[in-house]
Amino acid sequence: MTIQTFKLSPAAKSLSEIDLLKKPILLRMGIAHDDLPHTLSKAVQIFGVEVVRDDTAVLCDDSGKKIEVHEAPLCTLAIIINPAHRGQEKPFLDWLRERGVADAPLVLEWQKGKEIETTALIIQKLADLLLSDARKIAQANRELLALRTLNDNLQNRFAAVESFVDRQGLQPFDLAFSNEPVSSSSRSNVLADASFKGVSQILPVASAGVSAIAIHFERLAHRDEATLHAQLVTLEDRQVVEKWIIPFSRLHQGWNYLGLSRTLAGLRRTLKLQLHIEDLDDEMPLLSLGGLQPLEMFQVQDAGNDAPLLKNSLAMQVWCGMPGVLLPSWANYLPAQSGQARDEGFREMPLANGIIDLATLANTEEIAFEFPAIMALPEERAIACHPPSTGITIGRLPAACPPKILRISSTAMIDNDQSQDVDFALVIAGDLNSARQLFSEARGAGSGEGFSGWTSVTHGEEARINAFIAEQVGIWQNIYFATRMRNPGDNAFAWAKFRDISLMVNG
């Protein structure tokens, strides 16, 4: 008896053939259907093997209707054959073998007076199959029980780890995004300019792992009875992930951390932070702003109509931890009032090691060292970019920026304590000339381009730099990265590296 795992080919179209692939059948060769016991044909479907030609086997049912079969039947109990036709089954067995049937079905001679013995052999094969299936089911149940036990143990261990992390305050956090405050001559007060619903800011990060959001106040109001209302919502389904109600007495000038009750996990969502002030009739506090933002969706908006108030985004930091884990008490400087988070939206994609290996020096006519100026370090998830004593070193990752890109980010760091300070920058552009113009700040980013600005880094410190694309285009763009000495001159030991490069795409 043979059970065949099959996949329908394009030729297998008739309902009769599909029916053959679903039910156990008995095949006959050299025997008329009427010569078989009536009770046997009632117990199981019996088909006669007519001929095998090319890739097709022709069978006939009890009414004599011929059926062309292109795939092996799912379960052939046996082939019963007239002893006078012995040997004619070989073409059919070869046809089965070509279709992946590893074990040929049993071939039994059908002789008058020995019908019961032949039927008994078929029943014995069927019983063996049932016994084998029963053993497999029992084994599967044992394995399922073992998996359930293992899952329970893992859940218990995870709960124990989570409890320990919570008690000891060991939840590790990474700064996933940082938009530092910038000085503004306009001194725009977005809270005062917005409607009564306040302001909103879409977070330019993937939702998974978000643990805390920091906002920066340049100036606070003096009335302690006023309160700051903040909530984190999802754009896809308008669910409130967390909310905070914070008396002004608990706020202070500088960074204020809004801690989530639990690090976000589950489905990706696009997150938006909404802020408004209650019980304050006089001068509004002054929220700090980040740099100019080329993407309108990431500019600070009026929460009442989602229209940008300025071309800046809010100064903010987004911290991430292990998804699903409770935040330790020390992290919840301003804990959330809501608890249950329902996590599709933005997706953070780390740059693959295969892409990192493609890093090359772009401005070869300007830069020459005794060692490679650009060096791919996939084992460190980094690219080394050694700056010259004067000028800049520009590296290139060809066609590494997909059409749906919103932001490219990287951690800038120096891997030698004898190095002087180094400036780092990222650019999204179509060619080197465009990248040069952006690095030199001769113009602003155009369609399909992005520029992070220059960020200075000292050894022992790290900075997360971000380049937002000004307008999405339907082509793949190049990524350019550059370094220069903050103070031209001594570039010895300037082991500058772009580490943990990631792309954020929409959807």
Automatic annotation (TrEMBL):
Protein keywords: Plasmid
Any Pfam family matching the protein: DUF6212
Protein name (Swiss-Prot/TrEMBL): Membrane protein
Native organism taxonomy: Bacteria, Pseudomonadati, Pseudomonadota, Alphaproteobacteria, Hyphomicrobiales
